[in-house]
Description:
Layout: H1 9-17, E1 60-66, H2 67-77, H3 83-91, E2 95-105, H4 110-120, E3 125-130, E4 132-135, E5 138-140, H5 144-154, E6 160-164, H6 171-179, E7 183-188, H7 195-200, E8 203-206, H8 207-214
Parallel strand pairs: 1-2, 1-6, 2-3, 6-7, 7-8
Antiparallel strand pairs: 4-5
Helix pairs in contact: 5-6
Amino acid sequence: MAINIFNTQKNELDDYKVLKEKPHWQGQSMNNTSVKGQDTKMRDTPAIDDTVFNGLNRGRVAIFIDGLNLFQTALQLGIEIDYVKLLCRLTNGSRLLRAFFYTGVDSSNEKQQGFLLWMRRHGYRVVTKDLVLLSENLKKSNLNVEIAVDMLNLAPYYNTAVLVSGDGDLAYAVNAVSRMGVRVEVVSLRTMTSESLIDVADCFIDLDSIKKHIQKDSNIGYSYRASSNSNL
């Protein structure tokens, strides 16, 4: 399923202006991520669940979801994602600053627009880019630049970044925010995740290990308004 909605980049830039100061947290500091020997990363384990979060002071959390990458992962797992469950699972009781969802769009697809409207109304900031025609039957867009810029611009305001992507092109951005004192958790399917991305993360969570917690119930659909000529 391709996903689309109109571009919201200006709104995201406006959001940064209202974040006047860095949050202050009680408890153990999350800022020292340089000692890799104490990391919770377990790259040799094929399936790692999110019990590593238990008792961990993650501070304020920002979530960055590569929509196309997650969709491809869901196809591999044979599930449909429940995005409310996903948001709850990734936040896991911590304070949420923002949850971004990045995706390519086709403005002619009403079903996709309806889905992203639903996403906006259920806790996500949707960031989009027009799909580019690569061949007669293939359209694609790459939002790695948008993900990297948002991760860096917001880094002073969150303690933990949750990146839902396996794309190794994001490793440089992850390493950059780590140097700023941010903890980075990468969530993706192990077989679809670049080693370079895992190497620079503080923690890796295999989506296969938590799929039962984030998949949509077969009898529940997304609820949103659609125009009268929509087939939804």
